[in-house]
Amino acid sequence: MTPSPLPILVLYYSRHGATRKMAELIAQGIESVAGCEARLRTVPQISTVTEATEPAIPAAGAPYVELTDLEECQGLAMGSPTRFGNMAAPLKYFLDGTSAQWLSGALSGKPACVFTSTGSLHGGQESTLLSMMLPLLHHGMLITGLPYTEAALMTTTSGGSPYGATHWSGIAGDKAITDETRTLNIALGRRLALTAQKLQGT
């Protein structure tokens, strides 16, 4: 009997598409590891009074995340565009509703990584990555970064950090993902999947 693939959740919020493209590359890296399966999920936009402002089913792209996705995953990649050096409000709003999973330890001991895109070159990429790590640490997750053994991390001029994958998308969001950024995103997804497998003893 063939064992079920390990589900790895790729959870992101994307306003103009750059973070979504990164999520898809990370999913590609996850699925390059035999026995692992990427589960792409997003969150809806919210209003200024923090209520969802979109239909229950997105018109395009990944489905909206459900709390069961967190409970079922064996690893988590989480991404957001930068918002003044912090994660975007829709992602934070979703995380604020995960108290039951925190109390039950649903994510404790599972590996996680983070990724971000930003409009300006020095727009708070690393602080955004760190802001996303904080709730994951509270959930007891094991943070995996991007080591400098990834050669592209030493040569990239378009993004990349030991804290996680990054992309400089430009003010208009029109800067394409470079070959180096592509390589680093795939490498991060692969690293997450391999870590999940090791923790599962597979």
Low-confidence stretches: none
Domain module count:
1
CATH superfamily: Flavodoxin domain
At CATH level 2, the architecture is 3-Layer(aba) Sandwich
- Give me the count of strands: 7
Total DSSP helices: 7
Distance between the termini: 15 Å
The description of the largest β-sheet is: 7 strands, mixed
Overall 3D form = globular
Helical fraction: 25-40%
Commentary on this structure:
The protein is an alpha/beta fold and 202 residues long. It has a single domain, classed as Rossmann fold. The protein has seven helices and seven strands. The chain has helices spanning 18-31, 67-72, 89-95, 99-104, 125-138, 152-155, 179-200; strands at residues 6-12, 36-42, 76-83, 86-87, 111-118, 142-143, 165-168. Strands 1, 2, 3, 4, 5, 6 and 7 form a seven-stranded mixed beta sheet that branches. Helix 5 (125-138) links the parallel strand 5 (111-118) and strand 6 (142-143). Helix 1 crosses helix 7. The longest helix is centred in the last third of the chain and has 22 residues, at 179-200. It is globular, with a radius of gyration of 16 Å. The two termini are 15 Å apart. The relative contact order is 0.21. The model has no long low-confidence stretch (mean pLDDT 93).
Reconstruct the topology from this structure.
Blueprint: E1 6-12, H1 18-31, E2 36-42, H2 67-72, E3 76-83, E4 86-87, H3 89-95, H4 99-104, E5 111-118, H5 125-138, E6 142-143, H6 152-155, E7 165-168, H7 179-200
Parallel strand pairs: 1-2, 1-3, 3-5, 5-6, 5-7
Antiparallel strand pairs: 3-4
